[in-house]
Please model this.
Amino acid sequence: MPQHIAVIMDGNGRWAKKRGMPRTAGHKVGAETFRSIATYCKDIGVKYFTVYAFSTENWKRPAEEVDTLMNLFRRYLKEAIETMAEKNVAVQVIGDLSVLAEDIQKLIADCNREAQNLENPAIATLCINYGGRDEIKNAVRALARKVQAGELLPEDITESMISEHLYTAAMPDPDLIIRPSGEIRTSNFLLWQSAYAEYYFTDILWPDFKPEHLEQAIEAYNKRQRRYGGIG
Ligand code: FPP
Model:
């Protein structure tokens, strides 16, 4: 079983368009899919489940669409705070959170506080205002500041140090990254962390994604031989 599964939740807009509905309807159903797949992951013993919920580029979308997404995050975070103890799932949010609405930042802080009371929980991570390059840039800046302060020599910078300065510092790298909806690119998602991840692409649109599709992805993952650059 992969320990960490990550998903690029793609295809909501096309799902809605096919049904003559507004794009926002696709995101609403996509949020339900997220709930059911996160629960399923936990039930089958996947420790980490991470989703790309809003990229640093998604602000370019129409205000109504951005508002709908932010409201879906609000609703989910409130629900997570209420149900976290019962489900033993720690919900966390990563990304550049400084520009999110204050009430959302507060919900995220409340979630983190609530998560501290859990014992060995499954971890569900929402990437919001997340960009892989932005994340690496922030890590580089943090390390540069340490060099500037005389705390670190450039030649002493290691790959682990870079990992430790990413938003995902406390998490293992993803084993399996799933992208539904027929698109075959990484779109700036977990760029550093995906170095040895197995990718799985499917034409299913995210709102149609069911546990059986996750099972198919895990089955494909289990047939692959991970060599990490060696010869196996
Ligand atoms: C990309 O599909 C999807 C997004 C930009 C948003 C993903 C967010 C959700 C599914 C809501 C998640 C909510 C919670 C509570 C986690 P797209 O809209 O670009 O699809 P398209 O390529 O078909 O247009």
In short: The chain has a mean pLDDT of 97.
